[in-house]
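ok trying this again, last paste got cut off
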Amino acid sequence: MARRDSRGDDFADLDDLISASATAPSATAAEVAASRRRRRRNGWIAAAVTAAVVLGVPGGYAAWALNAPLKPATGEVSIPSAPAPAAAVDIGFTADGAAALSVAGAEPYLGSEAAGVWMIQGGDDPRPIASITKVVTALVVLDAYPIADGDRGPTLVFDRDDHALYDAYFVRDATIAPMPIGSSLSLRDALATMLIPSASNYAEAIAVWAFGSVSGFRAAADRWLVANGLERTSIVEPSGLDPRNTSTPSDLIALGRIAAAEPTVAAIAATPSLSLPGPGPMANTNRLLGQSGITGLKTGTLEESGSNLLYTASVDVGLPEPLSVVGVALGGSSQRGVAASVLGVLERLADGFHVTAVAQHGQEIGAYTTAWGSSARVVLEKGASLRTWSDTPIVVDGDVRMPRDWVDGEVLGQITWTAGPESVTVPVVLDGDIEPPSEWWRLTHPGEIG
């Protein structure tokens, strides 16, 4: 900071002080008398100062004026107010049917319950799950015949009875895939044909291969459901065509987590399309794969109960790891409507995380000024921001002291902003030096000393 030391200006001030009345407007007699007394006093001060300066008097007034303590700088510091919170997020499930959502990875923001069943709409009663049943079928079969990582599992050879399932499910207007007599597929490829295009004839063929009959599969499914805590889920056959295959939104959230943790099922459910000898080319019924981070799992529709989707997603909201989402929509009016609802839910979830600026580099929060005109600002040393969820309020707290050294960069304290699990602290510093007054200013401003 430049130092102001203009002796000529000080002499001009002294001259103005002595001759102030020369340009004064007309006044009362009392005001004139008071003005004369001030001029005489100022004249004596000016004369004393001039004598002290010219004659170099070592003691008396000059010694006092040059060494007396100065009045402290004046000013104030204001802790910045907290930014207003963002608008509350409405996840916005569709009105028809039922839905539920689980979000893992953001518990400090959303609450510890978020990784369980965070939100639910439309009740938690059992509803027909249609082809979501095939996820249960795959998990029950893999529990009995696990496939090692990188392996394709045992081989299934399809006979005349298996081939007959093609016609049996065709007349039921179910989704089917070719199963030529004498053809074969690995268990993994057979499961892929069941899950990707949702081929119901493959669901029954796999279940009978694994457990000898549909009733044998049903008994195995009951045991598996109980062992995995899905006691409000009922499976009577492997394809999902029977509306007695039911589950609740909360049970399906748990099923989604189990399926996402099973490598074979998770990999198949994330496959957009596939072509295999026998079944031929096939496309995944889950057309949302790859949108808004969706990684799986399974669609399901019955005319009498509506459209369903059990889905998983990996949603990036700027945290160290993406959020792991499991959701379900049951009983929607159409697959198009269910898809639009799910995409909206994931979009609003991601948009609900905000980065809010709370401090700017060099932001002034106060200032100090001396009687001799030297000044310095009090500023924030750096900028800062916080990540917040929905309408989580931001709280600000600060501890700032008076400067001691009055030098540029002196740390005076800090200010902390907190929102949910996040907090950020910024040092408060002095911007600029408070320069000492000139000797001439000391000699000519006795009223500002001491």
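PB: full thing came through this time. The two ends are 25 Å apart (CA to CA).
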